[in-house]
Amino acid sequence: MKNLLRYLSIGLMLVTVASCGKNPERAGVALITEQAIRTHIAYLASDQLEGRGTGTRGEARAAEYITHQLDSAGVKPGGENGTFFQKVPMLNYSVVPPIKYDFVKGKQRISLKYGDDFVANTGRVELRVTLNKEIIYVGYGIVAPEQRWDDYKGVDVKDKILLMTVNDPPSDDPNFFGGKALTYYGRWTYKYEIAGEKGAAGVILIHTDEKAGYGWQVVRNSWTGTQSMLTPKPGDPPHSRIEGWITREKAEELFRLAGYKFDEMIDKAGKPDFKPVSLGVNLDVDVKSTITEVESRNVVGIVPGKIADEYVVYTSHYDHLGIGNPVKGDSIYNGARDNASGCAAIIEVAKAFAKLQKPPERSMIFLFVTAEERGLLGSKYYSQNPLYPLNKTLANFNLDMISFLGRFMDITLLGAERTNLMPLGEKLAKEYRLTVVPDQTPEQGHFFRSDHFSLAKAGVPAVNIQPGSTIEGHLSEWGKEQVEKYRNEMYHQPSDEFPPDANLAGVEQIARFTFQFGYRIAGLKEFPVWNENEQFKKIREESLKGK
Q: In terms of domains, do 409 and 540 share one?
């Protein structure tokens, strides 16, 4: 009976495709099915792949699986030397306990426990980092001339330990550090970058749930165990010798040791007249690491278009956290939603394009990137070493974390509002009976937290397509509760597993939407552009001059 139903389903699909033969866009949509997506997620999120940690055998198996799916569907190799792969040279490093990480003032010493109180890694290729350096609180650690903001005020912080508050200075004014929305200045990546530029010996970020947008368990699970960096090369931006986070509780102890109150110092940091404060406390560190060379891979496929040398790029990261700290006896971080869901959807988008009777107007690139969880490293490497010219890339569409809740009633086109792509996205959403809503948690800075951002920084108009929280057949509050539950109980946890009864109607819906969005953008006469006053506009304009 099962086989009969399967054949009837395939026959119905073929009839549907045939009836859409004069409309390639509709034909492609019909090819994307929930059943196929389910098969991909079930494998990519299985224990067999051991959490797809960067540079591990589990991640390699995932890459081979994606490659097989693309190849069998007729997607052509888009990588190096006629393969589906772009090699991404990296270093994996892990700290080796015991680790000394103490706050010292005279004879007083506060010893922190690795994982529970702090996380720290070297920002350089050093097997051992020993430091005993003065700690300076630099507020939010931001230099933003356009906001008339400078947390350093000319103070020389070279060879010091910089203590920083994450996020931006608080504001309700959208013209001042984005108001409630997080800007790039608030991201931990920026904090490390500015510390390196200033020549700091180290940087400590203060974690709070409110300002980070996630609990300490996310920091602990993301920053302990094996970490990765792109293999350094001459001319790379400098890094500090030690980079890490501490809990709010330990930050409070540190300020008390220095004779200050936590809340008062955080409040002062939120004002433009703030000046760096030497705490009169040293950080005494001894951290040993193992460092090994690894060569992970981006998986790249291409479906040639009528204009073969112009491109639309789809991205989705296929790595996750691998095997890590056990939670309730489970140490495999399967990453079903994060991001087997997005990978499965883009696999089906690629297969749909490959099976069209007529090619799309532009070539379609399918880029499955490694090491997103290590700081967007795979997409960063591609943007710095593009296989296809970025000045001939119309746009990027990214999928990362799709809920298993059912059909969505709303959608966020994160990044589209910064470009002239939004009207096209809104038109398509209307056809899907989807309400386009702005980022529902702008304070968490999702625009800066997935692989589209790497291409955006290189000037390419980039959109992260995010399903909303209003679910068909449910009250709106139910969906919000489910999203919150995932963030608190499953995000970057072993519990992000694939349940056999998962409702994937919404994943199919988002995959189909994403296919159509890219298909239509590929048919534009003019290249998409960033809106006025967007930080990437000048980069794009300079890039297109050489097109």
A: yes
